[in-house]
From TrEMBL:
It comes from the Bacteria. PROSITE patterns: CLP_R. Residues 2-184 form the Clp R domain. One of its GO terms (molecular function) is peptidase activity. This is Clp protease N-terminal domain-containing protein.
Length: 184
């Protein structure tokens, strides 16, 4: 599948691995894919993100992801479901962090055990990459670009899609942006 990735899409995958390494994460997640997309400059996804989530709103997007990481990656829907059962997720996070330190539920800590030197991708991150192929095929595109990864991220559900939607980045809005003809 990776042979069909454009240079930009490959840069996103490599960038995601870099974000995981710098963050001390044992695995590459969808969040890392999004952070790598935000690093891109001269690609279709970068242009769409510049339009839909301008630079002045990116700090808010990254903060939303960070907050979700503190909640062990649970989405608002998950938190609401727990609240309906009488479980206060905020109180649990506070208690765990009080005992084990800030970010204890984030799962970002390096494993002290044996490590092969290569970070694996979570099932959800792999799903995003597989969906990017499906999105490209549905759009009748020959290659998988970073815009397909961004479109796939908006459809997966969960924290990343929720954070993107909260910042106006939905499948429909990204699709409209990347479908516009390029202006010379």
């Amino acid at each position: 599948m990776f042979e069909r990735f454009t240079k930009g899409a490959r840069a996103v995958v490599k960038g995601a691995v870099g974000h995981a390494e710098r963050g001390g994460a044992a695995v590459v997640t969808e969040e890392h894919l999004l952070l790598a997309l935000l690093d891109q400059e001269d690609t279709r996804a970068a242009a769409a993100l510049r339009e839909l989530c301008p630079q002045d709103r990116r700090a808010s997007l990254v903060a939303t992801l960070s907050d979700a990481r503190r909640r062990a990656g649970l989405s608002r829907a998950d938190a609401d479901a727990l609240a309906d059962l009488g479980i206060d997720l905020g109180a649990i996070v506070a208690r765990v962090e009080e005992t084990h330190g800030a970010g204890a539920l984030a799962g970002d800590r390096k494993d002290a055990g044996w490590w092969s030197g290569r970070r694996s991708f979570t099932r959800e991150a792999k799903t995003v990459l597989e969906k990017s192929l499906r999105v490209a095929l549905a759009r009748r595109d020959r290659e998988i670009g970073d815009e397909h990864i961004l479109l796939a991220l908006t459809t997966t559900g969960g924290v990343v899609a929720e954070a993107l939607a909260d910042h106006g980045v939905t499948f429909a809005s990204v699709d409209a942006e990347v479908s516009r003809p390029a202006v010379p």
